[in-house]
Amino acid sequence: MAIVAVILFALTIMGGVYLLTYILAEKNTPKGVAIIHGSAGALGIISLLIASFFYHSLFYILIIFIAAAIGGGVLFYLDLCGKKIPKVLALGHGIIAIIGFIILAIVVFHK
């Protein structure tokens, strides 16, 4: 399940980079991509949660991704309300998620 989480988060990051280009250009984000991005992230968190029952060290990484997801939820709410998305919040959300992804990949693939 940990490898599934890595794959799901990798796909989520690709969608996130795509969405970030819209935010940095101050354009409206495509809502379908945002929904897929959030859904893939949620599935990654669920996969990581299941894996953390077997590998307890993954629990701490799960906390990082939950923090990123909270930021993502705030971003999605602001977007749906038609409010301007703060670039620093979008960048912070992405940086937290990428830090979690790097740590997860190191833990999962370290031999």
From TrEMBL:
Species name: Legionella wadsworthii
Record key words, sorted: Membrane, Transmembrane, Transmembrane helix
Transmembrane intervals: 6-25, 32-53, 59-78, 90-109
UniProt KW Transmembrane helix keyword: yes
The organism's place on the tree of life at top rank: Bacteria
Protein name: Transmembrane protein
Organism lineage string: Bacteria, Pseudomonadati, Pseudomonadota, Gammaproteobacteria, Legionellales
